[in-house]
Amino acid sequence: MTTKIAILGCGTVGRQVLLQIHAHLSRLAALGRPVEVTGVLVRDPSRPRGLGALEGLLTADASALGEADLYIEVMGGTVRPLELLAPAIAAGKPLITANKALLAERWDALLPLAERGLLRYEASVMAATPVIAPLAQLGRSAGPTSLEAVLNGTCSYILSRMERGVSYRTALAEAQSLGYAEDPPTLDVDGWDAAHKLTVLGRLLFDPGFSLDRVAVQGIGDLHPEDLAAADRAGQALRLVAEISFEGGWRGRVWPKRLPKDHPLAWTPLSRNALLFSGTDGGTWLLSGPGAGGAATASAILGDLFSWAQGIPGPRPLGWVAAPPPEPS
Ligand code: NAP
Ligand code: HSE
What we know:
Layout: E1 3-8, H1 12-23, H2 25-30, E2 35-41, E3 58-59, E4 70-73, H3 80-90, E5 95-97, H4 100-105, H5 107-115, E6 119-120, H6 132-141, E7 144-150, H7 153-162, H8 168-177, H9 186-189, H10 192-205, E8 215-217, H11 225-233, E9 236-246, E10 250-260, E11 272-279, E12 284-290, H12 294-309
Parallel strand pairs: 1-2, 1-4, 2-3, 4-5, 5-6, 8-10
Antiparallel strand pairs: 7-9, 7-11, 9-10, 11-12
Helix pairs in contact: 1-12, 7-8
């Protein structure tokens, strides 16, 4: 039986999702999971998007989504997506989302799907770089003691361009034109997008009750070229770092941090992301790769769609609070 897919959003990411699904229809059918995209929700269906015949799938009529068997949410925001998805969530239909703001701020509404392995969200953190599945495994096997990461591609892009003499404003405009930035981009530069992603990871790895209000947030808006130059003279690079550590409980922090230039998180040019995970046995793991952009993010959505097609459940919450790290001896 053909699975009907509804896509919410056809912007930077959604357009690429639609194209990539259509490029892989035969592979999905070969897995015994034929799919058909039955509708793509947008605000303005009349705006040309270079999709050829697929533009006929665009609609502003949310009632057209009700027929679907599987939902892909790439529209952003925390209120409207939930209004639209509430019936699907209540009916226990699989959901794939790239929306870290929704995951961070409305986990309560998504938890019933997550507990049943029906929620997949690999694209929400570090875009094309798999982190949710590998970290869920490490959370079970290695017991986390800390996490430190560069999670926002727009900020990495701006800072690495400023290192080359480009102005903050020009670098931000470039990041927006490349499809890296949120709408509005204050979510990126004020640190909230990284805080959303850190909340997703904190809840997955450290504490099921980890919430956004446990994260202290500072963005990059107050940085000046002199700050980057001073860091450079000291052999350091400035990056927006997101970290989780134990301070009487698991806490998060997002802030512009000076890193030695040979630190693994310092090598995050353009929109690259990187993450260092430390475990109770003293081991550390480095995950690094593309962290933003339409095609990159859509590839992670496609990966989630294939995992659904192969019957691999979405990551279930760990269900326990990680032990505090051992005191240094
Ligand atoms: P975008 O380019 O702004 O696209 C948003 C899409 O949603 C547009 O097609 C828009 O319709 C539609 N939309 C928004 N509000 C709507 C509403 N109320 N009713 C109907 N349609 C609505 O955003 P994006 O960059 O693709 O990001 C989408 C999601 O993916 C966000 O949650 C973002 O955080 C996440 N994400 C993005 C990236 C990235 O690199 N861009 C990476 C990872 C995750 P119109 O086209 O008609 O305006
Ligand atoms: N705006 C986000 C970023 C997109 O710049 O990292 C990827 O999640």
